[in-house]
Amino acid sequence: MNTVFPFEWILAIRFMREARMQTLLIMSGVALGVSVIVFISALISGLQTNLFRRTLDFQAQIVILPPKEVSRPLHKAGEGMLATLVQPRAQRLQSVDQWQTVLAQVAKMDGVSVVAPVVAGAGFIVRGEANKAVGLTGIEPETYLQLIALNSKIIAGTANITGTDILVGMDLAKDLGVWTGDKLNLQTASGGTATLSIRGIFDFGNSGMNSRSVYIALRTAQSLLDLAGGVTSVEVNLDAPFTAETVAQTIQAQTGLKVDSWIATNAQFFSALEAQSMSNTVIRFFVGLTAALGIASVLVVSVVQKSKAIGILRATGTSRQQILRLFLLQGALTGLIGSLLGAVVGWLFLNAWRKIAVNADGTQLFPITFDPMLFVYAAVGATLVGTLAALFPALQAARLDPAVAIRG
Q1: Residue 396 neighbours by CB under 8 Å, 6+ apart
Q2: Is this prediction's pTM over 0.85?
Q3: Within 13 Å and on the Cβ side, how many CA atoms surround 406?
């Protein structure tokens, strides 16, 4: 008896070495399966992160709005007649009622990372004979720049604006023939007007936003839009973005205001993320099932081939539990070694993909990060699959009658 390794370990390794070709083939199958799982999981995770970033980097996860104005019935008594006014009222710019209180209340909620007041409305930029309609957004830079990734899209100047500054998109700047430091005249339908200096120019990679969106200081927007002391929305980001709908419902119940979450406003996008995650789970399941069937089939054949040896072992005093552990160890070792090889192959696949999937300018199509825990999960999962796959052959071997096995 070896003092370093238990009896079952020595015998399991010997059995695997004797059936070298079978062992190599099934380990290769496990390695291929694990490499596919690692590669597909990292790929889908990178794609989801990229889509998620593109969507939420420039959109608040929760937006608190004033309730919409609705038409009220106008009842006219007399001779049993009832007249009702059904035309919808024209929507005018409204402020969130007691927004400072709402902001403070939401900021204290668990899981809330950023809360920012915003004033949004329509305006016109006039420069010489040019007149451009724009959507203006009034912000407090110290909070709003934590809410969306505007800083990362500034191609000239800075996003830290003051009351006399404005941020414009790259396309709008080209249309007007302006750059940082130039002056623009901003007007609104309510009669507000201000001459502002271009503090920064951004590029969102979207022609519509680059040509129609401008950012100014919150107080300047309040003055231009005749909304003194008010804000049109309070925008919120969370530590866990996928809890946005639950938190939004909580805020709505507590404040009575209209609250939208990114999940509700991007329902199709959220469904696509869920579909991708489900497809990843299905791929993992069937790859794992294929590997399990391969290991089980090889060990079933091994039980038949080694039946006489098993009979002799049982006749010389080897217990059923030892025979059981012998084949379970073979399955576990096959899964573990195959998973380690598969993790290396998956890592090579991911490196190759990073070099192949590039944009025209040489940058990555979308970032793929190497999560060490993914390799750990794959190794542990494959080892468990190998052990479970070996359970039936192990039970079959443990039940062999020594006399029948030796005569056979």
Answers
A1: 300, 303
A2: no
A3: 8
